[in-house]
Amino acid sequence: MSDFLMLNEEEEEFKKVLNILVNPQHEDNNYDLKRIFLFDGNRDTGKTALLKRLREISQQEPYTDKFNHVFIDWQDKYDKNIKLRVGIDNIKPITVMDAISNEFQESFREFSQMSSDYQDQILSWKQVEEKGNLPEKEELEKLNAPETLVDLVNALGEGISNLVKEQKKPLLIFFDTYEFVGSQKCDFYIRRLIKAANALSKSIIWVIAGRLNLVENTRRNQKVELALLEALKDEDGDVVKVAIDSLMNYKQALQVEQLTYFLLENRHQDRYVRKAAVSALQSITYSNIGHRDLQLAVRAIVETVRKDEISNVRDAASESLQAIYDLDIVKEQLKKHDPSLDTTAYRTKIREEGKYDSNEILHEYLGDKDFSKLEVSIVKSLLRNEDPDVRTAAVKKLGEMASSINETLVQELIKLLDFNNKDSDRYLREAVVETLGKLAKSVPTEEILDSLNEAYRQDVIRDVRDAAKGALEEIEKQDSEMGKLASHHLELMDFSKLLTPTMEIETAIEILTTDEETERQVKAALALGSCQQPEVVGRATEVLTKVLKDENQNQTLVAAAANSLGKIGNSLTLESLLSKLKELEGKDWVARKYVIEALEELLIDEKYGEQVNLEKVIEVLINKWRNDPISYVRDAVEKAIKEVWKATRNPTAYEAINRYSSEDNKEFFQEYPPQAEI
């Protein structure tokens, strides 16, 4: 390494550098001049003693009065400066730059003049920082404030080089106990400072010691950084995720807008990308970012908690929100600059912690009214409020007023179940299905059952689906027509609980071809699953495939058709099943699950051999495993790919199981090892 030196004959190497700086004609002039010395090691390995020894050497003959020195012990700074005692990852780079500048001013009276640009800019920067956000470029220019922290650091580097030129002496800068400020974000700006100063003066030597592995932590290659930024545009979710994780080592504050882009404006389809973006935003909020970026980051995290369809992503966002909202500076900035976002963030946080009380929100809008005497019309009026938390609280309250609710109001509640709208609030939808379940007894309408059934089969949020299913199960207990209908809805979600209808094959085919009653068609489709007679298999397959191809077909009928096609087993149906699976994205998860199970049957059936493009189907299934919002569907994919592995030992299936399964598959692979003979 041409610029960096580790522990190896330290004193002799250091003296060679001093000789060249003092006398360019010295015999050591052919030595490749080192301008940065790095020493790392554990406690009590003599790093501090070594730095002091090197400083003493530079003050003794033949170097007496030939060099200027600045020695900063960062542990000493830490003990004296409260702004450094906030946890290494929370130290602001500007605090470190300030400490360096102050040390120079104490050592050299003229440094303030030599670094006048920096001194002016640091005052302006602090004024801007107090406002909580960077103004527009024109305002920054009026304030003589730098546009970015890098500009400020460059100004300090210029001041240090000016000092060297004015003093006409080489400068030796010693940093001891560097681990106290060596976080990635501070380290980045310190290295920028070194680069800026050394670019303007060849007579500055830096000697740095700390417990960190400084060589491993040294290189911040600009080409790599640019390549990683370019990788954010890649279509492969794995590439983007790795790029996000890696970019956290580079200029963190500049990535806020790019990361929120994956969560807000152009929400990335891959859950691993969104999860990585959320985690990165949590780290970035610990950095020295402006209020505008802080707002954007918090808004993206809150939106992800409330709206992302994948529970793993929501959980990661929830952890991030709870972590950053516990920072006093975050709460202070949000309350000062965006009270509305602060309120939403706080409500979301306490809801995730299970401490949410909807009545508190009603009190905010209705005052200290006696809720036991509250009129339905007053609560109803809140259903149109712009704040989703207010609407949610109103819906919950209506559930407590069941005896006063009529069918018209039920219809208004059902309209709030806008689960196909990605901007719809999941907490609101969950409250609606819970309230509809409570109203089913006092307002027994089929619309309530249909809405609960639709919510269970199509809502992307698990909590909403669970609430809808729970409501149907409670209604099922009623000894009434509503109870029977609820039971029927639940039966049609799992065909394994139904007795296979006994029906002649010809009759079943005729019903599917001519009958328009959905329930009879579902029974006919299920009956065809037992069809194995060679003379009618072709006709049964053709009729069931036609059901799949109808884009407007009832989803329960589609599920029944897929279920039977899997049992019949015909490789000619493969493309139809794959097309249907794609068409069902964002629609009925029960139908998707049965299509996947049908694909599984085709993939593991030995008689098809090369007739089935195994790799193509596995890739489709892997995409579902990664990104289908419904855990039941992802579970069906996992089962299918494991069955494929057992039957074929396909390497892509093996990689997928290792990568995406949340289970411990050690015993599975012991039972079905890669080297087994098929």
- Measured as a percent range, the helix fraction is 55-70%
Question: Biggest sheet, in brief?
Answer: 5 strands, parallel
How many strands? 5
What characteristic shape results from the CA principal axes?
elongated
| Spatial ordering of strands, largest sheet | 1-2-5-4-3
How much beta, percentage-wise?
under 5%
Distance between the termini: 53 Å
Please work out how many helical segments DSSP would assign.
35
Radius of gyration: 34 Å
Mean pLDDT equals: 84
Q: Note poorly predicted spans.
A: 1-7, 132-145
Give me the secondary-structure category.
mainly alpha
Short précis:
With 678 residues, this protein is mainly α. It has helices at residues 10-22, 47-59, 74-80, 93-107, 111-114, 116-131, 137-142, 149-167, 184-200, 222-231, 237-247, 256-261, 271-284, 291-307, 311-325, 328-337, 339-352, 358-366, 376-381, 388-399, 407-415, 426-439, 446-458, 462-476, 481-491, 505-514, 518-527, 534-549, 555-568, 574-583, 589-604, 614-627, 631-648, 651-660, 666-671; strands spanning 4-5, 36-40, 68-73, 171-176, 204-210.
Walkthrough of the structure:
The protein is elongated. Residues 1-7 and 132-145 have low confidence and may be disordered. The chain has helices at 10-22, 47-59, 74-80, 93-107, 111-114, 116-131, 137-142, 149-167, 184-200, 222-231, 237-247, 256-261, 271-284, 291-307, 311-325, 328-337, 339-352, 358-366, 376-381, 388-399, 407-415, 426-439, 446-458, 462-476, 481-491, 505-514, 518-527, 534-549, 555-568, 574-583, 589-604, 614-627, 631-648, 651-660, 666-671; strands spanning 4-5, 36-40, 68-73, 171-176, 204-210. The protein is mainly alpha-helical and 678 residues long.
